[in-house]
Amino acid sequence: MSESTIIYTHTDEAPALATYSLLPILQAYAAQAGVGVTLSDISLAGRVLANFPDFLEPAQRIDDALAELGQEVLRPEANIIKLPNISASIPQIKAVIAELQSQGYAVPSYPDSPENDAERDIQVRYKKVSGSAVNPVLREGNSDRRAPLSVKKYAQKHPHSMGKWTADSKTNVAHMNGGDFFANEVSTTMKQDDTLTVELVSADGEATALRGPLKVLAGEIVDATKMEAAALDAFITAQIARAKAEGVLFSVHLKATMMKVSDPIMFGHVVRAFFPKTFSQFGGEMANAGLNPNNGLAGIYAGLDALANGAAIKASFDAEMAEGPALAMVDSDKGITNLHAPNDVIVDASMPAMIRTSGHMWDANGKEADTLAVLPDASYAGIYQVVLNDCRRHGAFDPATMGTVPNVGLMAQAAEEYGSHDKTFEIPHDGTVRVTNSAGDVVFSISVATGDIFRMCQTKDVPVRDWVKLTVNRARLSGDPAIFWLDIDRAHDAQVIAKVKTYLADHDTTGLQIDIMTPEEAIGVSLDRIRKGLNTISVTGNVLRDYLTDLFPIMELGTSAKMLSIVPLINGGGLFETGAGGSAPKHVQQFEQENYLRWDSLGEFLALASSFEHLAQRTGNARAQLLADTLDRATGRFLDEDRSPGRKLGTIDNRGSHIYLAIYWADELAKQTSDPELAAKFTAIAAELEANESTIVAELLAVQGSPVDLGGYFHPNADKVTTAMRPSGTFNRILSDLS
Ligand code: NAP
Ligand code: MG
User: HSE of 581 in the Cβ direction (CA atoms, 13 Å)?
Assistant: First the structure.
C-alpha cells in the first residue's frame, strides 16, 4: 500500500453495517488531503470464501485479505483501522456455511467427525477461520488503550445509570483451587534459538507427536500446563450444588471464542455436569448423532427431533433442568440459557455487565437475581471477586466521580495466546506430555490423564521489551502511576517479572511510580484509587488486557466502545482498533426488525483521528494533520451536543450520528485558517449541510420502524445494505458534490 493510504477493515455485524454509512464520508474528506481509504474484507464470510477458492466458481473467488494484512502490518507505512469482527464458534461457522450455500457458494459443509483426508483438510481450513483468527495476525504490536479525556469528561458530566449494590448480595465468583491451568503451570525462558517437539508418551513408552516441530527464539518464554478433567468435573458439580444451596443462579463465564480450543471443551464439561443423568443414559446416542455438548444446548436441542429417543432425551434434560439450580439466562424471552451457546457467555463482557447490574443476572422469568459466577481456572478469576466484595462494601461505582484505569497490554506477536492455538490439546489417553529441545533434553514433562486439556504458550522477548517501553512512555506522558499485574507465585509471571525488572533498568524512570503486584492486589489498589477519582495505569498480559479493557470502560463509560485503542506496530506502522468491544449482534437484530441501528461509531472516530495523525507524522502531509485536528474537535462537539445514537426509534441512529460528525467536521475545516483553499471548499459544504439539516433528519427518521431485508446476515447483499444505510438522498448528493 502507498504511504498515503489508510486501510479500513470490512468486518461483521453492527460495525460492518455502520461502515456502509461512514466510509463514503471518510473517503470524501480524506481525498481532500490526497489520502486514500481502501476497504479490506476480513469478515467471517470473506475469510471462509478466501479459504475455499477450489470450491467456488472463478467469479466468486476473493483474495485472502487477512493474509495480505498480515504482511502489511510488518511494513513501516502500515496504517490500518481495525473494526471488531466475529470470533466464530463452531455453531457460527456452521451458520455462515449454510448462509453462503444458500446464496449459491458451494463451500463444503463442516465435517464434525472427518472420516478421510479430504474432510480432515476441510476441517483444518474451517478451524483456521474460527475463533480469534484475525487479531493475532494483525497485532504486530502491543496495546495502548484508554478513555480519551474528552470521552471521560463527557461520561462524568452525563453518567450512565449503574445498578445499586447492597451489602447482602449473594453474588460470588467460584474458581478451582488446584488441578487447573494456574496450579499446574511450568515455565522457562529459552537460552537459545531452538526447536521443540511435543509428544504424548503412553505408559508403555510409545510416543505420538502432538504437533510438528515448534520453533522458539532465544529469550522466549515458553510455558506448559494442564486442566485436569477429573478436578474440573468435581469442581463444577460442587458449584452446581452450591448455587442450589445458596439459592442463587448458576452461570459459567468462559472465553470460548478467543480460547477456541480449550474453552469450548470446558464449556462442554459444564453442560455434561449440569445434566449428569441425561448424559450417562443418552450421551452415547447423542454423540453418535454428532450432538456435541461443547457447542451448547441449542445445537443439541435442535438435533433431538431426528433421534429415535429424541422426546425421551428432551424430557430428561427438562427434568434435570428443573432439579438443578436456576440457570442464568442470556435471553429469557427466547428461553436462551447460559448453557445454550458457548459464544454467548464471553467472560470479559458478561462479568462487567453483571457488576453494572447490581451483581445480578437474569432468571427464566426475566427477573434479576444474584448469581454464582463460575470461572473454572484460577489465573484471573480472583480479580472479579475483589470487585464484587468492593461493591458489597462501598456500593456501586459512581461514573460521575470515578477515576480511570487505562491499559498497556502485552499482545504482540501472539504473546500469551493461551488456549487459542495449535498448542492446546484434549488428551486422548493417559500418559506424559514430553516437551524436548533439539539436543534431546526434556524441557517439560507433565503427566496427563484422558480428557485433560494440555496447553503450551509462547511469549517472545521483543514484545516484552516493547511493552515495558510503552509503559514507561505512558506513565511519563500521563503522570499516573503504573502497576504491572503479575504474580510471582505463578510460573509464567515469574519469568515475565525477571524480564520486566531487566528492561525497566534500560529506561530513565526517575519521578515515575511503577510497581509490580499480583492481579488481586493490583485491582484492590486500582479500585481504592478509582473511588477517590484517581487514575492508575494497568500493565497486563494479553488475557487481562482483554478483560480489563471491557471491565473498566463498562463501569466508567457504560461501554467499551468508546475507548481509544492504539497498537503501535513494532516495525513503525500503526494499527488503530476501534473501541474494545465486539460486533454487537443484538444491534443487527434490532436493525433488521425496525431499521434502527444503535451502534455507536465513536470508537471509529477516535481511531480515525489517530490514524490521520500517524499518517501526517510519517509523510509530512499537512492536510492529513489538519484532518486529524479538525476531526478531534468535531468529535468533542459531537459529544457535547450528544449526537451519539440513542437506543430506541425516533431519535437519530448510527447513520444520523455520522451525518452530524460530517457537519461538525466540515465546520471545523471551514473555520481553520492554516489552509484557506481547504477552508473555502468546506465553507460551502458546511453551509449546504446546515441549510439542509432538517430535510436530512426527516429523511433519516422516515425510514425507521419497519423491517429491513439485508439479503444475509454474515454475507449480506452489498446493494441492499448500501440502500439501507444511506437513506438520505439530500446528504448523499451534498457529499458527492465534495468528491
Ligand atoms: P459486544 O458485541 O461488545 O456486545 C455487548 C454489548 O456491548 C452490546 O450488546 C452493546 O450493548 C454494547 N456495545 C458494544 N459495542 C458497541 C458500540 N459500538 N455501540 C453501542 N453499543 C455497543 O460483545 P459480545 O456479544 O461479547 O461479542 C460479539 C462478537 O464480537 C463475538 O463474535 C466476539 O467474538 C466479537 N468480538 C470481537 C472483538 C474484536 O474484534 N476486537 C472484541 C470482542 C468481541 P447494548 O446491547 O446495551 O446496546
Ligand atoms: Mg474484550
Answer: 27
Neighbours of 358 (CB within 10 A): 18
| Distance separating the N- and C-terminal Cα atoms of the chain | 22
Other beta carbons within 10 angstroms of residue 738's beta carbon come to 18
The answer to whether residue 14 is domain-embedded is yes
pLDDT at residue number 308? 92
Distance CA 234, CA 246 (A): 18
Distance from the CA of 560 to the center of ligand 1, in angstroms?
8
Give the per-residue pLDDT at 649. 85
In 3D, which of 521, 585, 232, 543 has the Cα closest to residue 414?
543
pTM of the predicted structure, to 2 decimals: 0.90
Chain mean position to CA 361 = 21
Closest atom of ligand 1 to 350 CA is: 26
Produce one character per residue of 716-725: b if its CB has 16 or more CB atoms within 10 Å, e if not.
Answer: beeeebeebb
Cell of 415: 504473546
- Residue 25 covered by a domain: yes
pLDDT, position 260: 86
User: For residue 310, which phi and psi values (nearest 5 degrees)?
Assistant: -50, -50
Specify the pLDDT at position 95: 97
- Smallest CA separation from ligand 1 atom 4, residue: 584
- Note the pLDDT of residue 701: 95
Q: Which of 568, 668, 564 is nearest to 626 (CA)?
A: 668
Average pLDDT for runs of 10 along the chain of length 739: 92 98 98 97 98 97 97 97 94 97 98 94 95 92 93 93 96 98 98 97 95 94 98 98 98 91 96 98 96 96 94 98 97 95 91 97 97 98 98 97 98 88 93 97 98 97 97 95 97 98 97 98 98 98 96 94 93 92 93 97 96 95 96 94 89 96 98 96 96 97 96 98 98 94
The answer to whether 23 and 40 have CB atoms below 8 angstroms apart is no
Nearest ligand, CA 258:
1
pLDDT of residue 258: 83
Sequence-distant (≥ 6) Cβ neighbours of residue 57 within 8 angstroms: none
Q: Specify the amino acid at residue 605.
A: F
Place of cell 510416543: 207
Q: Which ligand is nearest to the CA of 714?
A: 1
Is 346 within the bounds of a domain? no
Helices vs. strands in the chain: H and E counts, helices first: 27, 24
Sheet with 442-448: strands ordered across: 207-216, 194-201, 431-436, 442-448
Q: How many domains does the chain have?
A: 1
What is the number of residues in the chain? 739
Mutate to test the pocket of ligand 1, among 137, 346, 547 (most ligand atoms within 8 A of CB): 346
Residue ranges with strand state E in 131-206: 143-146, 172-174, 186-189, 194-201
Q: Would you say residue 617 lies in a domain?
A: yes
pLDDT of residue 359: 98
252/272 Cα distance (integer angstroms): 13
pLDDT at 581: 80
Residue to mutate, 258, 550, 583, ligand 1, most ligand atoms under 8 Å from C-beta: 583
As for ligand 1, residues whose beta carbon falls within 6 Å of it are: 84-87, 135, 257, 346, 349, 559, 561, 579, 581-586, 598-600, 603
How far is Cα 489 from Cα 163, in angstroms, rounded to an integer?
36
Q: Whose CA is nearest to atom 21 of ligand 1?
A: 599
* Closest by CA position to 443, among listed 411, 490, 491, 497: 491
Please identify which residue in the block is written with the cell numbers 529506561: 507
Residue 485 contacts residue 386 (beta carbons within 8 Å): no
The rounded distance, in Å, linking the Cα atoms of 667 and 686 is: 5
| pLDDT score at 116 | 97
* Domain of residue 9, residue span: 5-140+569-738
